[in-house]
Amino acid sequence: MRRWGNTNRINGTHNQQPPTNGGNGKGKPKPAAGSLDYENRDNYEFGKYGYGKNHVKLLHVFRDGPLHTIREFEVDTHLKLSTQKDYLDGNNKDIIATDTQKNTVYVLAKKHGIKTPEEFGLLICSHFLYMYRHVEEVEVNLEEYPWERLQADGQEHNHAFLFSPNAIRFATVSQKRNESPIIIGGLKGLRVLKTTQSAFTDFYQDGYRTLSDDNDRIFSTVVTATWEFSTANGVDFDDVWITIKNCIFDKFAGPPDKGIFSPSVQNTLYLTEKMALDKIPQISRIEMQMPNKHYLSVDMSKFPPSILENNENKEVYHPVDKPSGIIYAELLRKNLISKL
Ligand SMILES: O=c1[nH]c(=O)c2[nH]c(=O)[nH]c2[nH]1
Question: Cα Rg for the chain, rounded, in angstroms?
Fold first, then answer.
């Protein structure tokens, strides 16, 4: 999890002028002269610091007559204050208690509702920056529970839902005072497998290599993807998430009858990222991980033919948990790189 990272910024900040009584002061109060804790203090400085509440669990139900819509989240809120007197001096005056942070999540959900994880994260960031002048930076992580509307008699149910954990959606929104927010969308845990249209051949040959070329192998992976938005204006965050999931399916599986050929996990990963950047102009970069979950053919050659009714030895595979290959890459729009 990225904490207090700093990369590209999105245009347009929220009004972050705090109420006049927000926060209670800056500067380091001096502990009593001669205090042991005070000695040598100037020899040190803080690196990363902050605090917050993790795993605030929340179900939001929107009742539009008989049609109900739900979103369930676990939310982490993290604040970085401009003062460090809580750490340095045991002075708690500036601390917005983690319990208060938890309450804030519930109150904001009740007051404003929840549309998407990204928009709820933006709301929480701007709330803390607006309310408390001594909050320097906010980071919010949101993980969504994968509820889908239940289908009954071929029809979408008004108020019943099915837990469908085939891909977990998450988002991270962070914002520094007087800067634009950074919005990261994400997907993880998407496990897929195909039984053909995957090969791995012609790779580096030397005395350390024992793996044979394989022209037709099983390809299975558990996809993680994260992407950064270059704008929040007019973005349909739900639609972006579904589009990226569909890019993964398109480049991994291809059309239902013929599929799509993969010469390596690396190439499939790159083509997926490229398709996502081509399709979604509002994202500036995408990063993916595809572990290679190996399924190895069981060697049947030592069994006598009489014991095997069918001699075809590619029907039984041994799923190998560990070790697994790990393939990853980040793809960025080139014009953004050259502007840095
Ligand atoms: O698609 C693959 N990429 C690799 O880098 C690799 N390495 C390996 O052993 N098998 C595979 N498969």
Answer: 26
